[in-house]
Each structure stands twice: as structure tokens, then as C-alpha cells.
Design a protein that fits this description.
With 292 residues, this protein is mainly alpha-helical. The chain has helices at residues 2-31, 38-55, 60-83, 91-113, 139-161, 163-173, 175-180, 185-211, 220-233, 238-257, 264-278; strands at 118-119, 129-132, 135-138, 213-214. The strands form 2 sheets. The chain has a two-stranded antiparallel sheet with strand order 1-4. Strands 2-3 form a two-stranded antiparallel ribbon. The longest helix has 30 residues, at 2-31. The model has no long low-confidence stretch (mean pLDDT 88).
Length: 292
């Protein structure tokens, strides 16, 4: 069935958006910062995975873990160096800093290795497919879905069942009250950046295996689309980011399937405009009054 095939493709693409969107929404939920450098952490994750697989001859899982660990470290460094001093600054100052960090990462990578793209090697995931009701589901699609579900379940466990998860929820609700209760707010924010960046690193490796081609500016468009996914679901909401990522991936795939492939990127921004007009708080978001 053609529609089932497109749904499978949409879920595969949406899984990548969902993983990146989780980082956006977690950071915004904690410190109300739209971290536009997050898409570039995703790019770094793709390159780390590429070097681990192509140059160090590692298999998929070790490459994925190395990419997640190094991206978590990079995320903490970005937070400590660029954002920590701006905790009490205006939102526009933090936003401009995030854009500056994004450009710094992109052009630092270009400076050291050039702007030429790289290609992930074939056969990282053994090629196979299964037919379900006429739809051919590749081993790559299954791998993407399985890895994404495992990481999302792990994230839900961390947020709801661990001490650091409780601290994250407390800081998200009221940072000053959390500090009075003895929670180390700085370490909690760093942990949030580490977890979100690790998810972006995983998305980068999955993206490289799925699309093969990676380059230093690859984080710009997927990063913006993941931000749209977070807004669609309700930025600050973890289930919303997951839902928004999958909706965005499925819509893009359907737009391409009906013959408007050149409009697939525009579809994401049309969704952003519609959601900002109809329900600015997002599908899972709640209307909150500003305290004066």
C-alpha cells in the first residue's frame, strides 16, 4: 500500500526531527532559551559518527555512543562558556548569542576541514527489507525507529524517575524556589544541555546513515525544522516535541509523495505560521499568563 509506505518513510524522517526537537524543548523548558546552536551540535554528532565508522572502523552502536558522549560534553561546554553568564540577561541577548555560537561552530568546522561534504560508507546497517501489507520497510527504517524509541523511553525514565530528572522539573517550574530547596541549578542546567546534546548527536549519526551525505552546514535546515516541531508540539513539552517531530516528518513525506517535493521544506514553515496563528502555545502547550 502506497500510503503505508509513505507513513513508514514519514516516521523515519520524523524520528530524526523528534530527537533534535527534544533538545530544543528541554533547554527552553529550563531556561527559556531558544538554542539555535543545537542544530550544529547535531551536525557535529554526524561528523563524529562518520569518523568513528569510516576512519576508526567502528560499528553503528559504538559510533552512536561515542557521538552521544562527545556531543554531551560539547553541549556542556557551550552552556558553560556562552550561556551561563547570560542567565539574567535579556532574551534577545541570549538569542543573539545562540546565533553567534551556531555560526562559530559551523565556520570553525569549515576552517579545519573545509566545506566539502562527506559520505557515510555503505553497509553500516545490513541492507534488508520486510514487506508488510505491500509496504517495504527497510532495515534502516527499523533501526531508526528502534533507536528513537529506546532513547525516548530512556529520556522519560530520566526525567520522571531519577534525582536529576526531578531537579530538572523543579528548576523548570521555579529556578529560585529550587535553589532555596538545595538544588544545584547550574549543574541541573548543564545536565539538561548534556542530555539534549546527546540526543542531537544520536540524531546526527542516524541522519548520516539514512541520507548518507553530511556537510558542515547540514544542521541549519534540520535544526530549524526541529525547532518548528518543538513549537508545533508545544515548546517546553517533551511529549509535544516527540509528537511534533513525527507530524512534521509525515507531512513532509506526504507533500513529496503527492508531487510537490520542492515544497516539502516550505510545508514546515507553513505549519509554523498556522500553529502560531491558531494555537501559539502548541498542541501540547498550555496558555500561561505572564506575571507582572
Amino acid at each position: 500500500m502506497e500510503w503505508l509506505q509513505q507513513l513508514v518513510n514519514g516516521i523515519s524522517v520524523g524520528s530524526i526531527y523528534a530527537l533534535i526537537a527534544l533538545g530544543y524543548t528541554m533547554v527552553y523548558g529550563i531556561i527559556k532559551l531558544i538554542n539555535f546552536a543545537h542544530g550544529d551540535v547535531f551536525m557535529l554528532g554526524a561528523f563524529i559518527g562518520f569518523f568513528a565508522i569510516a576512519r576508526w572502523d567502528l560499528s553503528f552502536i559504538p559510533a552512536l555512543i561515542i557521538s552521544m558522549v562527545l556531543c554531551a560534553v560539547i553541549g556542556v561546554i557551550i552552556e558553560r562558556v556562552a550561556y551561563k553568564r547570560l542567565r539574567n540577561a535579556t532574551r534577545i541577548a541570549a538569542l543573539i548569542t545562540a546565533i553567534g555560537v551556531s555560526l562559530l561552530i559551523e565556520y570553525t568546522v569549515i576552517y579545519f576541514r573545509g566545506a566539502s561534504p562527506e559520505a557515510y560508507p555503505d553497509g553500516v546497517i545490513p541492507k534488508a527489507s520486510i514487506d508488510i501489507f505491500g509496504a517495504s520497510i527497510s532495515s534502516q527504517s527499523i533501526m531508526i525507529l528502534v533507536v528513537t524509541i529506546i532513547l525516548m523511553v530512556l529520556l522519560q525514565f530520566i526525567v520522571h524517575k531519577t534525582k536529576i530528572g526531578k531537579a530538572m522539573r523543579a528548576v523548570s517550574h521555579d529556578a529560585d524556589a529550587a535553589r532555596l530547596m538545595g538544588i544545584n541549578v547550574d549543574n541541573t542546567i548543564s545536565a539538561t544541555f548534556a542530555i539534549g546534546s546527546a540526543l542531537a548527536g544520536a540524531a546526527g549519526v542516524i541522519f548520516g546513515i539514512y541520507y548518507t551525505r553530511i556537510d558542515p552546514l547540514m544542521g541549519v535546515l534540520p535544526g530549524l525544522k526541529a525547532f518548528i516541531a518543538a513549537v508545533l508540539g508545544g515548546i517546553g513539552s517533551i511529549p509535544g516535541a516527540m509528537f511534533g517531530g513525527y507530524i512534521l516528518g509525515i507531512v513532509e513525506t506526504i507533500v513529496s509523495a503527492i508531487g510537490f517535493s520542492l515544497w516539502r521544506d516550505a510545508a514546515a514553515f507553513v505549519i509554523l505560521i498556522i500553529i502560531l496563528i491558531v494555537k501559539p502555545s502548541g498542541i501540547f502547550g498550555k496558555n500561561a499568563r505572564e506575571k507582572v
